Amino acid sequence: GQQLNQSPQSMFIQEGEDVSMNCTSSSIFNTWLWYKQEPGEGPVLLIALYKAGELTSNGRLTAQFGITRKDSFLNISASIPSDVGIYFCAGQLRAFGNEKLTFGTGTRLTIIP
Amino acid sequence: DAGVIQSPRHEVTEMGQEVTLRCKPISGHDYLFWYRQTMMRGLELLIYFNNNVPIDDSGMPEDRFSAKMPNASFSTLKIQPSEPRDSAVYFCASTSGTRGQYFGPGTRLTVL
Lengths: 113, 112
Known about the structure:
The complex is a heterodimer of chains A (113) and B (112). Chain A is mainly β. Chain A contains no helices and 11 strands. Chain B is built from no helices and 11 strands. In chain B, strands 2, 4, 5, 6, 9, 10 and 11 form a 7-stranded mixed β-sheet that branches. A 4-stranded antiparallel β-sheet of chain B has the order 1-3-8-7, with no helix packed on it. The mean pLDDT of chain B is 94.
């Protein structure tokens, strides 16, 4: 099945640094979601975006719905050790009865002590 | 709320055996999804239900896989017979359709 392209695939950063990652698609979506997955756990929803151009924050996390509706961005400010994990974007073309998500390939975040 | 509950958390079985994975969605959610996650293929949607009715099973890999949802609080994913290539983490997720899907902790399946 289709997967969205996420970049970078992995990041190695020092605590306190800011993080930026993005997700691109060849087709448009009307909903973008960002999830975080830690080892041995299921993905956890971080942010949901429902409108092109929308900018939404959740604590140190900020995500944007690209105006082309084919991309989305996630920023993490002042990273801390508990930010370690894999971040997935997911796109959805919401329509009556369609609740399918298309997931990105993931960005693995590692914090160097 | 307890969140999505899956059992077992780990399953090790031999090729050819039947495997049944179980899921209890969040109360009040009317959509339930089964996903499979592997390093090679990432997160793949296998099937999803709305109000206990299968809506899209196009992701089910083959006839060895089947899923049921007999009521709003329980679903099963069955693999019969299992094969080594079925080894993966299987996730169940649920939603009410308003704010994304909520995932369970997953079942790690190993088929020897």
